[in-house]
Design goal:
This protein has 380 residues and is α/β, with parallel strands linked by helices. The chain contains 13 helices and 12 strands.
Length: 380
């Protein structure tokens, strides 16, 4: 997921998406507009200041929810790529799978447990503020934070991917049946059913006159449906590619681009008469020094193509995904999905023997599905 890096917390990379500004505004508006009912007698400015403060604390609570997932995953030996706050709260990207159902359950439950714990702490703070005679607006904000965190924790426990409850369901089914992929596919389909229910409920709310609530319910349902469908497609793709090696998917002996050629020469002499979208880049000694793609070539302004060398725009080898011919294609897919690009160079004995692109993988999946039409029919 894209986002603006803001640093590290507890050693974990943290990003913020622009959608957080929308969330901050919605939370601020929601709190500032309800405070006059629960804490009357204050100025409009005071309500809005309290709204901003409450919304900021709630965003911190959302981050704590995601951070709990990340910390538990890291302690279990699962790589954590980053934690991103965005429009729907937050996302923790993992670079691998839990080794056991018990570990998967711990990672999944950590977020909702944190939200429910925060709900209890904010409720206790609200009661303490009231007992100490603090202002009614402080009491109201504390109870509002308690309610939202409780709602967040409980909603995330609904049994359907990508919600945490879906991951809990997945861990339980994995433990019960001993089949991780089957469990994940069932959780994705449960998420799809949950999405349909939320969309239908949203439409009923809309028709009943609760327009804003109805739109939000339907919108959240649509988001869950999209994420669940994506998970399902990925699982079915992985199943279709089970047992396939990188050598079976790669384009063998790809044409190499000379690092010393200008972009203009490369386009005219190589690109126009070829069908590839990525090329290994070689130096004068024949060693592969990087990878150049159509996207990189496209970024070079037409007026600079005659003076820009291919080697100057190539992606260096330390940023290129490397695969072995005998490596399982599903393992390579996991590494590519973890943010290492959409292509991999295949190296054998120190020499580049092939390249794997998204087009290669798409074609292979289509062919495998034609050849094995029932291979991915879990639960169907």
């Amino acid at each position: 997921m894209h986002g603006i890096p803001i640093g590290r917390i507890a050693g974990l990379p943290v990003k913020v998406d622009w959608g957080v500004l929308v969330v901050l505004w919605l939370f601020t508006w929601s709190l500032a507009s309800t405070l006059p009912n629960s804490a009357p007698g204050y100025s409009t400015r005071t309500y809005w200041v309290a709204g901003v403060c409450g919304a900021a604390v709630l965003l911190a609570s959302l981050f704590a929810h995601e951070l709990a997932h990340a910390i538990v995953a890291r302690r279990a030996g699962v790589q954590v790529l980053d934690v991103t706050l965005w429009l729907f709260g937050g996302v923790t990207r993992l670079g691998g799978q839990a080794a056991t159902p018990r570990t998967a359950l711990r990672i999944a439950i950590a977020g909702p447990a944190t939200s429910l714990l925060l709900a209890a702490l904010f409720a206790a703070a609200g009661m303490e503020f009231r007992a100490l005679g603090a202002g009614a607006i402080a009491v109201a904000v504390a109870f509002w934070l308690a309610g939202i965190n409780a709602l967040l924790g409980l909603f995330n426990l609904l049994p359907g991917a990508p919600l945490d409850g879906g991951q809990v369901l997945r861990a339980w089914l994995w433990q019960r049946h001993g089949d991780q992929d089957r469990a994940a596919l069932s959780a994705a389909r449960a998420g799809r059913a949950l999405a349909y229910a939320l969309i239908a409920f949203g439409l009923l709310e809309f028709l009943a006159g609760a327009i804003v609530a109805g739109i939000w319910s339907a919108f959240i349902g649509w988001f869950i449906f999209t994420a669940a469908h994506t998970d399902e497609v990925q699982l079915m793709t992985r199943d279709a590619l089970s047992g396939v090696r990188v050598a079976d998917a790669m384009t063998a002996n790809p044409h190499a681009a000379p690092a010393w050629a200008t972009v203009q020469d490369f386009i005219e002499r190589y690109l126009l008469g070829d069908r590839h979208s990525a090329y290994p880049v070689k130096d004068h000694k024949g060693s592969i020094t990087g990878l150049v793609t159509l996207d990189q070539l496209r970024r070079v302004a037409p007026g600079s193509r005659a003076t820009t060398l291919v080697g100057e725009i190539a992606l260096p080898m330390d940023q290129v995904t490397i695969a072995a011919p005998d490596e399982a294609i599903t393992t390579l897919l996991e590494r590519l999905a973890s943010g290492h690009g959409h292509r991999a160079l295949v190296v054998d004995g120190g020499c580049v023997v092939g390249i794997v692109t998204a087009t290669d993988l798409t074609r292979l999946v289509d062919v495998r599905r034609i050849a094995r039409p029932t291979a991915v029919a879990y639960g169907q």
